[in-house]
Design brief:
The chain is mainly α. The chain has two domains: 88 residues, Cytochrome c oxidase subunit IV (Cytochrome C Oxidase, Chain D, Orthogonal Bundle), CATH 1.10.442; 69 residues, Cytochrome c oxidase subunit IV (Cytochrome C Oxidase, Chain D, Orthogonal Bundle), CATH 1.10.442. The chain is 38% helix and 2% strand. The protein has a two-stranded antiparallel ribbon. Strand 1 and strand 2 form a beta hairpin. Keywords: Membrane, Mitochondrion, Mitochondrion inner membrane, Transmembrane, Transmembrane helix.
C-alpha cells in the first residue's frame, strides 16, 4: 500500500507508552489519512477508518494473534479481539468519548487568576491609593454644595432650581 510509512523515526513512537494494555508498547505509527503528514497517525472520531493500521511492526505474540485471526472468531477471547482492534486502531469509540479531566485545569487556572487579581486589588488599595480623600468628607461636600448654590449653578432645571434663596432651604 503506497500510504504506509517506510521507516520509523523517533517522533513516530507513542508518547503515551503502555496505555492500552495488551497492544502496548506501541510501534511505528502510520498515517490515518491518505495525503496527510508522513508517519503520523491521525485516527479520530471524525475519521473512524484510517488508511493504515496503527501498529505495523508486530512482535511474535502479535503475529501469532494475527494468524489466529484468520480462523474462526468464535475461538478468540474478548481480550484477543480487543488486542486485534488495538493493532489496527489507537482508541475505541468509548475511549475517544471518555470525558477528560481538562475541566479541572480550567477551573484551577480560573481560580488562580481570580486569586492573583484579588491580591493585586488588595495591594493597590493598601499601597497605591491614598486614604480617604479630603474632598469626600461631609464638611467638604457641604462647602461644595454651598458654593454651587452661591454661584447659582443650574438655576433653571439643575441643582440650584431646588433651592429657595429667600428662605435658605430646599424647596418642598
Amino acid at each position: 500500500h503506497p500510504n504506509y510509512c517506510k521507516s520509523a523515526s523517533p517522533q513516530t513512537k507513542s508518547a503515551q507508552g503502555n496505555r492500552h494494555g495488551p497492544s502496548a508498547p506501541r510501534g511505528i505509527r502510520g498515517r490515518g489519512r491518505a495525503g496527510a503528514y508522513p508517519c503520523v497517525w491521525q485516527g479520530a472520531r471524525v475519521y473512524p477508518l484510517p488508511d493504515v493500521p496503527y501498529r505495523k511492526d508486530l512482535d511474535a505474540q502479535e503475529k501469532a494473534l494475527k494468524e489466529k485471526e484468520k480462523g474462526s472468531w468464535k475461538e478468540l477471547t474478548n481480550e484477543e479481539k480487543l488486542a486485534l482492534y488495538h493493532l489496527k486502531f489507537d482508541l475505541t469509540f468509548a475511549e475517544m468519548e471518555r470525558p477528560s479531566n481538562e475541566w479541572k485545569t480550567v477551573i484551577g487556572g480560573t481560580a488562580a487568576f481570580l486569586a492573583f487579581t484579588g491580591l493585586l486589588f488588595w495591594w493597590q488599595r493598601v499601597y497605591v491609593y491614598p486614604g480617604n480623600l479630603h474632598t469626600m468628607t461631609d464638611d467638604w461636600k457641604a462647602m461644595q454644595v454651598k458654593r454651587m448654590l452661591d454661584l447659582r449653578i443650574g438655576r433653571v432645571q439643575g441643582f440650584a432650581a431646588y433651592w429657595h434663596y429667600d428662605k435658605n432651604e430646599w424647596k418642598k
